[in-house]
Amino acid sequence: MGTCVQEIFYDNMWQGRRCFIVGGGPSLKDFDFTQLNGELVIGVNRAFEKLPWSAITCSMDGQFWRNYAKDLLMHGSNTVILAVDPATSPVEMLVARSAGRWGLSPSITHGLCHGCNSGYMALNLALCLGADPIYLLGFDMHQTNGADWWHNGYPWPGTPRKYSRFISHFNKIAGDIKPGRVINCNESSRLRCFPFGTWERQSHPVYVSYYTLNGYQEEKKMLVRSLRTFGLQYEIDQIEDFGSWQANTQYKAQFILDKLDKYTGRPVVFVDVDAEIMRYPEAFCDLDKQADIACHWRNGRELLSGTMFVANSNATRTLLNSWVDLNQINKFTWEQKNLQQLLDNSLDINMMRLGPEYCFIFDTMQKENPGIAPVIEHFQASRYLKNCRTPDRKKAKKKSVKIGPVEPVQEKVQYKFDRRCAVCKGTGRVANKQCIVCKGSGVKLDGSL
């Protein structure tokens, strides 16, 4: 049995975010699809084969989703199909009811218009989600060298008559869409009711996390689905169990450092694997131009490391190396307390304090911050994995506000380097005349030994 699409997606969920709809036209035969990694992407029919990170795979063709059901499920994308009854649809697929052949549906809850082709349906979905601008790729509406698609096709071929019919359907709705909101990226396309244009590539952070095989693998599935829903590039690794919850969490510092090395020049956002992305994390866009690190201080006093933005800079690498060392010394101290100790002791780093919506603990922070709409919500699976109560995700989501502006940051703080520790050879930092890492006789603040 399928799931109604409105249980996962809601109107204006992608409000003001740019989106790419990838069709099947032969103009994409040599296209570098990796350019779209980290973008909001809706793939039409077989586009999912080139877009393992796409937020949505869209199809109104029953022949397609019946023939490719196994491949779609392995792909893991949110597959949105048109069907009469969710009960007759494949499990794990999202079902949108038809709002008719012509026109544009104003809301996902009303269903989607399809115009007799899946690209039309995908455009209606993108408009309902609030995407702006919407870039069309592979909407050629003609053959090239005898080929209808960039892939090897379907058992049912396209015909010139069908292309003409598709074009006429788009022509009928073009006037109902704000000028410039939909952009056709193929100047040789026969679809000319939308302006032609190109786009500039943007740098996006990579969202990273890890988990162990002691219950957290189920949490990973929820996080992955939410990341894909917003088109966020991610890497989530399975790691060995280091023997205790404390040791597993202290691995966070080294893990982030390794990801900075892997994704040279790009920032990363660490998110605990038992979290979900509830709204687009707008605060992280170009944040590396303003800060080296960003996280939330609960009640202005306690650093929470469940969500952390980390720029790819020398300052953050120095901080992370110090954090690794301090975790080794304070093995029984919570890793986020070790990080807070470092930040409280004169490190030369630009730090921003995120609002509570970016590290929103599903129950306790609802009481502390009534009316706040979480962007990244944490369900703290360690509670029930330690035989405590299970987080009620459905109840938490019902209470969560889905609309409203996001305040990116609360406060920017500038820290400065103090003198290095002679004992640690530059790893430790001097605070109160003693190195907080090695606890040895470091360099005093006046420079004397």
Protein described:
The protein has three domains: 3-184; 206-411, Spore Coat Polysaccharide Biosynthesis Protein SpsA, Chain A; 418-449, no CATH class. The longest helix is centred in the C-terminal third of the chain and has 16 residues, at 314-329. It is 25% helix and 18% strand. The protein is built from twelve helices and 20 strands. Strand 16 (360-361), helix 10 and strand 17 form a beta-alpha-beta unit. By secondary structure, it is of the alpha/beta class.
Q: How many domain modules?
A: 3
Give the name of the CATH superfamily of the largest domain.
Spore Coat Polysaccharide Biosynthesis Protein SpsA, Chain A
Share of helical residues: 10-25%
How much strand?
15-25%
Total number of strands? 20
Q: Please report the first level of CATH classification, the CATH class of the largest domain.
A: Alpha Beta
- Level-2 CATH architecture of the largest domain: Alpha-Beta Complex
Number of helices, counting only DSSP H or I runs of 4 residues or more: 12
CATH topology value of the largest domain = Spore Coat Polysaccharide Biosynthesis Protein SpsA, Chain A
- The stretches of 5 or more residues where confidence is low (pLDDT under 50) are 394-420, 422-434, 441-449
| Largest sheet strand order | 1-6-5-4-3-2-7-8
Shape: elongated
Between the first and last Cα atoms, what is the distance in angstroms? 72 Å
Radius of gyration, CA atoms, in whole angstroms:
25 Å
| Main sheet characteristics | 8 strands, parallel
